Amino acid sequence: YQAKMDFALKLGYAGDQIQAVLNKLGADALINDILAELVRLGNKSESEGQSSASSTTSTLVPRGPCPKEMASPELSLEDEVVDNSDNLRPIVIDGSNVAMSHGNKEGFSCRGIQLAVDWFLEKGHKDITVFVPAWRKEQSRPDAPITDQEILRKLEKEKILVFTPSRRVQGRRVVCYDDRFIVKLAYDSDGIIVSNDNYRDLQNEKPEWKKFIEERLLMYSFVNDKFMPPDDPLGRHGPSLENFLRKRPVIPEHKKQPCPYGKKCTYGHKCKYYHPERANQPQRSVADELRISAKL
């Protein structure tokens, strides 16, 4: 009995199974009969285990993420930020610059200001401020024509437009410098300046203003009645417009196809493909690198 028990244990069968077979067949049973019975019992238990497993899985509820949650992190983050205006920077618009640009430098077109404001409102921005000198509320003159002047009153009621102070002293108009209002508010609120002016005089006033204007100035163009800021406000290798307008960038900067030549590419900054290894360094061609090393 013990010899048959040890033999079956060496073959990997469980002790209770062997004991049940020996009790059933008797201690005098042949080894072959015992093994046949053990095999039959093993097959039977496996089939029962599979049936119980299938019945269990049929009632199980999957605990993984739902299909909506399984979306790519980039898309889910982008959707979240588009709806979340807290991540969008405040916008400060140089009203005089925008209105004169829309009027082709010939007149003060208030409609241009409205077009710029509407563009940012459609992007989800809520903190928008437009600065315009107060004397623009006066009646239009031939030497300084103003069109669609009622738009200024409308935007003022909506608490979007702010008139910078001006007054008359002995028949002479005294005007406060509206550019200083624009730069100061944008700097204090960590926002974006919308203008085609470089504010060179203000850059020389304070070093922190100089750096801020260089990094937060959003230029634009008007194509008829379409307000068009650039997709690359800080140049070809800077942030995208979407990330430029956000406090925390979300959309990956480079969606272009990676360069098939990789690090062996000799096109330098002229290469139209994306080079991850050149993200934080000046992109020069191999020929330029050789010239520089030769000079050194």
From TrEMBL:
Keyword Zinc: yes
Cross-referenced CDD domains: PIN_Zc3h12-like
Organism: Buceros rhinoceros silvestris
C3H1-type domain mapped to chain residues: 253-278
Chain ranges of zinc fingers (C3H1-type): 253-278
Keyword Hydrolase: yes
Pfam families, per the entry: RNase_Zc3h12a, UBA_6
Cofactor: Mg(2+)
Biased composition (Low complexity): 48-59
Chain positions covered by the region annotation Disordered: 45-74
MF terms (GO), sorted A to Z: hydrolase activity; mRNA binding; RNA endonuclease activity; zinc ion binding
Family statement drawn from the similarity comment of this UniProt entry: Belongs to the ZC3H12 family.
Protein name as annotated: Putative ribonuclease ZC3H12B
Keywords annotated in UniProt: Endonuclease, Hydrolase, Magnesium, Metal-binding, Nuclease, Zinc, Zinc-finger
A Gene Ontology cellular-component term: cytoplasmic ribonucleoprotein granule
